[in-house]
């Protein structure tokens, strides 16, 4: 048997969900799966979005995780028992808020040796989202073939924005991002942003004052609806736009985007695992590259807060912090109660 923390709907209107420990059968690894003993987990917006409500059944959430491999399926050839690993999980399967988790080995990699479990757990989902949106969807060359071009990152102090700033700088881009509070501005500066503008003031005029009446890339990691019209105005001809947040309704993609031949790219980190795409192992490769970048000091973890132990109370606290829209970087939980 093993313990897991499951979320279920609650009749409490002030806090319409609750979490508690539950005993579940110990999973067994087969096929491409590995069984991981969980040491730390981290919070992401997806945790709050897939939380059960209404008449939904209770479910084990959690996607970012760091732990150790304790069992491997017969098709696993990339990882071994004892390996210290990290991964972003699979939204279609039970999550990492459990002492043990079955996960497809092809989306799991050995974690950075220089990081603690909590520091490593803070990275996978956001690193994959940032890497895929920048390097794969928008076609930015990590080796610097677009060096000197500009990128406007909306939501730079968030989990994805924090790592995207670092990856964009590695590619040689000039990074402009948004903030309003001093602490989030300081954080973006620590991540390497070249320019930080106040999203509560006129963004277009601030960009122009900095010498960027148009930018080559826009990565909106915060609110598609709120910044859609602005994006069309500031994107350069033949520019690229990356989106990760579902809009509330249809998006108008005519002029000025048509006149500018702008490219629009959706990024959903779970696509490869959800559809078991033929390149599913690419996520293992990306996480391995991220681990190397961390261990060589080229990028850093975006962990900003640790809660301990991993308990129902601390998980609910982490959910509330995530939903407050005031969190900076990532929040992780470590050690079991």
TrEMBL record:
Gene3D superfamilies for this protein: Medium-chain alcohol dehydrogenases, catalytic domain, NAD(P)-binding Rossmann-like Domain
Alphabetical list of Pfam families matching this protein: ADH_N (PF08240), ADH_zinc_N (PF00107)
SUPFAM superfamilies in alphabetical order: GroES-like, NAD(P)-binding Rossmann-fold domains
Residue ranges of every copy of the Enoyl reductase (ER) domain listed in the record: 19-333
A GO molecular function held by the record: zinc ion binding
The entry's keywords: Metal-binding, Oxidoreductase, Zinc
InterPro entries the record matches: ADH-like_C, ADH-like_N, ADH_Zn_typ-1, ER, GroES-like_sf, Lipid_raft_assoc_Zn_ADH, NAD(P)-bd_dom_sf
Keyword Oxidoreductase assigned: yes
SMART domains xref list: PKS_ER
Family of the protein in this entry: Belongs to the zinc-containing alcohol dehydrogenase family. Quinone oxidoreductase subfamily.
NCBIfam families: adh_fam_1
Protein name per the record: Zinc-type alcohol dehydrogenase-like protein
Organism: Rubritalea squalenifaciens DSM 18772
């Amino acid at each position: 048997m093993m313990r897991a923390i499951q979320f279920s709907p609650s009749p409490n209107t002030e806090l319409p969900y609750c979490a508690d420990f539950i005993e579940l059968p110990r999973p067994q690894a087969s096929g491409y799966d590995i069984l991981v003993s969980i040491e730390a987990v981290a919070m992401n917006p997806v945790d709050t979005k897939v939380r059960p409500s209404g008449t939904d059944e209770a479910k084990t959430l959690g996607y970012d995780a760091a732990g150790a491999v304790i069992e491997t399926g017969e098709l696993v050839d990339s990882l071994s028992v004892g390996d210290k690993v990290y991964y972003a999980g699979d939204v279609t399967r039970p999550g990492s808020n459990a002492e043990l988790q079955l996960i497809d080995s092809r989306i799991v990699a050995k974690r950075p040796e220089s990081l603690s479990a909590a520091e490593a757990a803070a990275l996978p989902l956001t690193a994959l989202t940032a890497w895929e949106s920048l390097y794969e969807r928008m076609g930015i060359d990590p080796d610097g073939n677009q060096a000197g071009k500009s990128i406007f990152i909306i939501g730079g102090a968030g989990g994805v924005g924090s790592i995207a700033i670092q990856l964009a700088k590695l590619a040689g881009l000039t990074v402009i991002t948004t903030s309003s509070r001093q602490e989030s501005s300081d954080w973006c500066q620590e991540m390497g942003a070249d320019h930080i503008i106040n999203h509560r003031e006129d963004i277009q005029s601030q960009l122009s004052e900095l010498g960027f009446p148009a930018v080559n890339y826009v990565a909106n990691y915060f609110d598609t609806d709120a910044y859609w019209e602005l994006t069309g105005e500031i994107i350069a001809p033949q520019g690229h736009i990356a989106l990760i947040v579902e809009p509330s309704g249809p998006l108008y993609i005519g002029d000025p985007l048509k006149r500018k031949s702008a490219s629009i790219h959706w990024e959903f980190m779970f696509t490869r695992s959800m559809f078991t795409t033929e390149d599913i192992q690419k996520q293992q490769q990306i996480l391995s590259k991220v681990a190397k970048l961390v261990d060589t000091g080229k990028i850093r973890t975006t962990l900003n807060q640790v809660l301990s132990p991993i308990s129902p109370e601390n998980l609910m606290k982490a959910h509330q912090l995530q939903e407050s829209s005031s969190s900076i970087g990532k929040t992780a939980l470590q050690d079991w109660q």
